Amino acid sequence: AGTMTISSPQDPGSWDPVDTFLVNWASVATNIYDGLTYRGPDTKLVPGLATSWDVLDDGKRIRFKLRTGVKFHDGEAFNADAVKFTFDRLMGEEGSKGPQKSNYAAIDSVEVIDENTVDFHLKQPDPVLLTKLAGYGAMIVPPKYIQEHGEDYFNTHPVGTGPFKFVSYEPKVGIKLEKFDDFWGDKAKIDNLNYRFISEPSTAVAELQAGRVDLVIPPTIPIGMIPTIKNDPNIDIVSSPSPTVYALRFNTKNGITKDAKVRQALIYGVDRQTIIDSILGGQASPIASFQGELSFGYDPAMKPLPYDPAKAKELLAEAGVKPGASVQIDIRGNDATFNEVVQAVASYLQIVGINATIKPYETNVLLNDIIPQGKTGAMFQQSWGGWTLDFDNTAYFMYHTGEKWNPYDSDPKMDELLESQRAITDPAKREEILRNIANYAADRALEMPLYNLNAIFGISHRVKNFTPVPDSRLRLNEVSVD
Amino acid sequence: MAGFLIKRFLQAVFVVFVVTITVSFAIRLTGDPALMLTQGAGSVTEADLARIREALGLNQPFLVQYFQFIKGMFTLDFGRSFLGGTPVSGLLAQALPATLSLAFASMIVSIILSIPLGIKAAVSRGKWADQFIRILSLVGLSFPNFWLATMLVLLLSITFRLLPPSGMDNFASFIMPAATMGIILTATNVRLVRTAMLETLQSQYIMVARAKGLSENTVLYKHALRNCAIPLITYFGLQFGALLGGIVVIERVFNWPGLGTLAFDAVGGRDYPVLQAVITVLSLLIVGINLLVDIAYGLIDPRIRTE
Amino acid sequence: MADTRLASTLSVENLTVQFGDNRVVEDLSFTVEAGRTLAVVGESGSGKSVTSMSIMRLAEMNGATYGGGRILFNGENGKIDLLAASQKEMRAIRGNEIAMIFQEPMTSLNPVFTVGNQIAESLMLHAGMTKSAALAEARRLLDMVRLPDSAELIKRYPHQLSGGMRQRVMIAMALACRPKLLIADEPTTALDVTIQAQILTIIRDLQKELGMAVIFITHDMGVVAEVANDVVVMWQGKKVEEGPVGQIFANPQHPYTQTLLGAVPRLGEMKGEDFPKRMPITVMENGTPRLVGAEHIQKTARYDSAPILSVRDLVTRFDIKKGLLGGVTHRVHAVEQVSFDIYRGETLALVGESGSGKSTIGRTIQQLQEATSGEITFDGKTFAAMSKAERQRLRQEIQYIFQDPFASLDPRKKIGFSIAEPIHTHRLMTSEKEITKRVDQLLERVGLTSAHRDRYPHEFSGGQRQRICIARALASNPKMIIADEALSALDVSIQAQIINLFMELQEEQGLAYLFISHDMAVVEKMSHRVAVLYLGQLAELGSRRQVLETPTHPYTQRLLSAVPVADPGHIRERAVLEGEIPSPIRRVGDEPAILTHREIAPGHIVADGMQQLA
Amino acid sequence: MSAQTPSATSEIPAKPVRRGKRFARFRQLEFILGILLAGGMCLAVVFSGFLFPDGGEKIDLMARLTPPFTKAAHFLGTDPLGRDVLARVIIGGKISLVVGLISVAGAVVIGVVMGLIAGYYRGFWDVLVMRFADVQLALPFILLAITFIAIVGGGIANTIILLIVSQWVQYARLVRGLVLSLRDREFIQSARAIGVADSRILFSHLLPNLIGPVIVLMTLNVATNILLESSLTFLGLGVNPLIPSWGGMLADGRTYLQNAWWVSVFPGLAIMFTVLGLNLLGDWLRDSLDPTGKTSK
Ligand SMILES: Nc1ncnc2c1ncn2[C@@H]1O[C@H](COP(=O)(O)OP(=O)(O)OP(=O)(O)O)[C@@H](O)[C@H]1O
Ligand SMILES: Nc1ncnc2c1ncn2[C@@H]1O[C@H](COP(=O)(O)OP(=O)(O)OP(=O)(O)O)[C@@H](O)[C@H]1O
Ligand SMILES: [Mg+2]
Ligand SMILES: [Mg+2]
Hints:
Shape of chain B: globular
Function (chain C): Part of the ABC transporter complex GsiABCD involved in glutathione import. Responsible for energy coupling to the transport system.
Strand content of chain A: 15-25%
Largest sheet of chain B: none
Bound molecules: adenosine-5'-triphosphate, magnesium ion
Number of strands of chain A: 21
CATH topology of chain B: MetI-like fold
Oligomer: heterotetramer
EC number (chain C): 7.4.2.10
Low-confidence stretches of chain A: none
Number of strands of chain B: 0
Order of helices and strands of chain B: HHHHHHHHHHHHHHH
Largest sheet of chain A: 7 strands, mixed
Structural class of chain A: alpha+beta
CATH architecture of chain B: Orthogonal Bundle
Domain ABC transporter (chain C): 10-261, 309-560
Mean pLDDT of chain B: 83
Shape of chain A: globular
Strand content of chain B: under 5%
Radius of gyration of chain A: 23 Å
Structural class of chain B: mainly alpha
Subunit structure (chain C): The complex is composed of two ATP-binding proteins (GsiA), two transmembrane proteins (GsiC and GsiD) and a solute-binding protein (GsiB).
Low-confidence stretches of chain B: none
Helix content of chain A: 25-40%
Protein name (chain C): Glutathione import ATP-binding protein GsiA
């Protein structure tokens, strides 16, 4: 019973799973839709609308047994046809208009075996596919409803099989859901779930303080406001590790950072632990490679390079870099916390004799022009973290020759490693290779790994039984409110 | 009158044309929406991008896209948002009243504050009341709107829990955003009213009005105010235009679902249809306000009426 | 004295008014009785307006303080001291028992309210009338000041009325509550003679009807002679003389009064003279009058050579556009088919009512205005045939003195700069030192000193400013000067000085003047020939004697009859003047009839078509 | 119709002012206060290099968010990176004043020239400049800013250009309106009658007579521009965050308002004093440039 209000930073504009990549779609839609698989806060993959599955034909076919007695919010029954419809739609005309299709490119076709069985035929094995089926574009949608009401209607009036059903949506303002009584799993404890779109962090926090919002979800809360929230007796902070990692990557092609020694020196020169403890208030953990501990491919044996300014100076001297050399660090202009971090980084670099200047860019310009075109300074901000929590999703795009996010480096050995793991379905073997990749990248000092930032939630004390999720895919059927 | 309307119309066409073509062209230089839509996705191929561009109609030459937009405009069809495909007209229908009502409320707050203060300052020119009002108005100019807004929220919403910190739900929601903008506008308007009033107060007819034995308030608020209304109205009109454009920050702070928010998100997400539509609406509004101001001139000043 | 004071409506006793430390009215006393008119005359800045504003207790709103004295007013509630009254008490008196007509009639009406509204306002306030009753009364008042069609008039706005009409509205407004005392501060200065005559008549008639006391402030001695019973003469903030009007005119005691009266130009003074004549004038020096100059006949016109300027069939029209893209629907026919010549050393006077096109002709000659058609020839060459450089050169040879000397000087430039500007512009001299020397010479020429060079225009008196403008006009060694009502804003004594300066310069340098004026007495004093303009057309043109002594065109006759005579004994019979001047604004296509001209005597040309002037 | 469009806060030069003694004294006070505030602030900023040799850059993460008036070394406290707020406020003035003053100067020069031309020549130039003004008005500043910065990039120079581009129109409108009311005045006509060249009429007669309101608008705009720079920072479009600026500090300090008010209040006060000083000086300057109502020597 009761109503819970959540502040979410962005309105994705459409609730159709095939239309968007925004995490803030997922933080709402996870309550509306189900996938064949499900991954909860513990990041374990468990049955969702499929009760079991078998990987066949060397990973080129997967057979799913579907859950029975499941109903869509409009009363339509869930069955194999719905699954086929969903994926035909995703891979077909409608999916082509959106960005999700490319993520599921491995799927060739879906075959209905019987009412409760489907086969996925793959073009090539995709080790991450089962995870991908737990979210985003793979959410199962109601065929009859969409055919009847049309695609446009579906965008703004979503129907799924999840624990909450859609009530109303006001663009740029909010979306309202209510408990779905015929949910197949644990039924929701609260009656109403309201989301409000609040993009300005301090506004969201003010709403939380004023008691008009019960939960503020990431990436909203600026670190600077954490003490404010902690000091307020009615609200609190909860956090969990997240996939999001921050690094300053290097221009390995030109300038002083062409030299791996210099890159290492710069890494030695920055006291990342102190930055985490002070600026980030402990809401992050140090990283040795460009991934967090939740990532598949994380190597606990890898340790970050220590803070050692003496060593840094020594390396710089070896590389022939004179004190007073300058580097430019390109960052996103709208990230207040990182802004402070990078200023601290610059001041550490100053200590080892490097003059850093910081150049803020509008996010989209940095991401779609400056980095891909290789127009960055010696260092640039990259924050990354896929919800699939698989290092391939990071490493391939960051390190493989010719990839969008890799404008500078080309290393045949790295390319080979990256390609080799993609064909392998044995998780243990893949993990091994991914760890090798991480180690190799660290050896070459391709980036200065900074930290793995927690997912930080601001929450009202009236909310009970809330488990923070790492990846914004909030499912709130267990939560209750006073 | 017909000539006047034709001229106004041509002017509107010109402004809307120049503004939209500039913005449409410039925004296309700042990044590809297809890239933006696929940002989170890893394995995006050129084919994927081409596919999305086609779906968004971006594969056509700029002029074709522009003319399609113009064509749509005549049927009030501004296309669909790149972000989620919502019809833009629907978004506008929601954002426009939100912004207009806030802008009006702010103007009203500012007018209610600045006219008596400005008149008081003018009447007591050089005395302490005048200096005090002028310095106060400068203080109002010294803090940025977002800062003032945050202070108000801390005080009224969090400390005293009187008003909602954000959103547009009911009358109470209007108070803080309108007050913030109103106070900032007042800072300049007080000076404006004061100056205009000083000019007018030196006129002979003000003396004549006093010589009739009229009370001081009748003299100031009836005879003097109406005579300096022309520059005031002109400036308020300009200000209203600027207000519509400058409302972005306030809308963000108060999470106001208006045109500013819409435009800001649209620029950020390179959502061309939304941006073009917002800009069109804004420029039409500004032309419309100019028109209203001109009509108001006639109502206020009979000399202009018969010209 | 004591008994008059008892009966008097207002008695001012030992009034002193100051702005800051600057005493502008000192120890002033006078009384006015019911049914009588007191004229207050005096030099500009002698405190006349301040006195009347003090009576209204409005002076303090401009920052004045009262140094002492009493202003006793015999009002409805018995005798009260206005200086001791509160503003609240004053509000009940102002506009009700004491009314005032202000110095600047054109700007005294609030432009955004209808005439009816503004008159009704006082009535509703003081007589407690309802709005409709007040409006009905307003109509009656407008009828009383003989404005036509009052029913329609109360709905009009001030800008839709001519100056004369506005002034009558002001009078109606002042009289709305039947005041016991009317203060009229130079109510006719800005108006031309015909309208002035109408207004004087109205005030006098109403005074008879209402039996009120009137304080009439003016510097026009002709007007004083016509309206006043008693006169107070003020000089430098003090009263220097007072007495019945006949006595003041006949036997002025104080030197200032003598100077003032001595300087008054009287129309008809020059009867029988062929040429203008320079007269000696009295000026006040250290408080004593001194006679300067000698009589001199101004026989300077060179009729033997070709005219320096000829104007042939000049037409200047202004388009009035309705709407913004709308076409031209109306035109102002400011100048229609005007032709005349000016010879070296000659003064041609251009006279006519306000709006008759005098300034437009001057401005067209000075190339400040494009002619619609017609030909202007200067020094033998037509404008049309001149190159750009030659036209630019004309701006050296012809100089224009604007009506308002203050307005025509850049307020932010020292006058030395302004005078040197023509020299710089036409590169007449190059060395800064020489230029400074020349400026000093010019200043001396017009009776100023080199010490004045570094002052700003506002630091001079009106007469001095006018002389600065003349110095500037002379700086470029012109052959001709267009003086556009250059004297009408001045005190008569300053006016006389400048007339003499003009004539001296003409004598020395053979200057030609186009002298634009509506003051017939001045015109008589200084012009060789006179052109009378009516509605943009030439009504009459001839030598001064011909036009002024044998006026032939009815319009000329009317103009002359309206001139007030500075002689209290003079009984004027003037033509009853009613109605407004016809408008020069016509619909496009509705061309005015062009008057044909006849030469009735050698050089005396008169227009036919007098029926137009009905 | 739309001819006379007085722009922001047009303080039309008053008619010859007749002031009492008290007022004259106040004018003096105005000047002294103005010099003390604006001049003092400028001096501190100019000599900030000597006052704070480390440029306020020294980061001390251990001493972050020290409250003001508690430690002698950090009289006004420290910011979230442990930098001295006093040092940053004073050094931050550099960017703020440079941005504020140069952008205003640029806009004034362009706007005044355009306004003079439009108002004096009317016709084609007028239509051109005024339609431009309409277009400029229809383009909201923030949108212009985002697009402009997205295309040409951020940085101080670009921020200044952006401010100039978006503000010259104000001056053009103001000046045009004033020229329209002055151009038919007799002293201009009489200059023309003498044959004075147009350029001289524009710059030597018209300009001095309309500069008063321009000065007033200028001094107001210095404030607005210092703040606009902060709005840009607020929207993530600011300049190098390592170089402190008042606006940037205000924007950065906003999230700390509840637990560390001093981070943003002091830069706010700095802006306020400067703005106050500049406006007092502006009023004084306008009056002293106006010879009307005073006696020379
Ligand atoms: N508001 C004012 N502040 C300061 N001085 C003033 C003010 N008004 C008038 N004066 C001064 O008072 C003196 C008398 O002015 P007043 O207007 O009474 O002259 P006047 O006799 O009416 O002259 P005119 O014939 O030119 O109208 C003048 O020296 C004038 O400068
Ligand atoms: N720029 C203009 N546009 C339209 N009409 C004008 C213009 N200038 C003058 N007029 C009109 O032309 C007519 C003649 O004006 P002009 O100034 O020549 O009269 P005037 O004889 O000098 O009168 P006054 O004695 O009042 O100075 C008037 O009706 C006037 O309203
Ligand atoms: Mg006077
Ligand atoms: Mg004239």
